Amino acid sequence: MKSTLRAKSQARIKRIAGQVSGIQRMIEDDRYCVDILNQISAVRSALDALGVELLTGHIECCVVGHGTATSHAKAKPLNPDELLSELRTALSRFLK
Asked: CA-CA distance, 92 to 96, in Å (whole number)?
């Protein structure tokens, strides 16, 4: 993972964790259900945005850059069919 993507991802995760903590406080404070549902929707959107960033980074670094200097250091050596299969698996898990 590129260091810029790692930093952005870590910042997003911290914001998401704050949002989840906010939802917990809202429930403890017996807030209006629709307000809580709106916050849950915001967390889902934030997680989706994080997933898109990570998936894009994976495609750029590990799929397109596979076997080059831009490839992730921990990427497994895969042939093109295996890379495509890995990408399909990642996409299907992300899109569920």
From this structure: 6
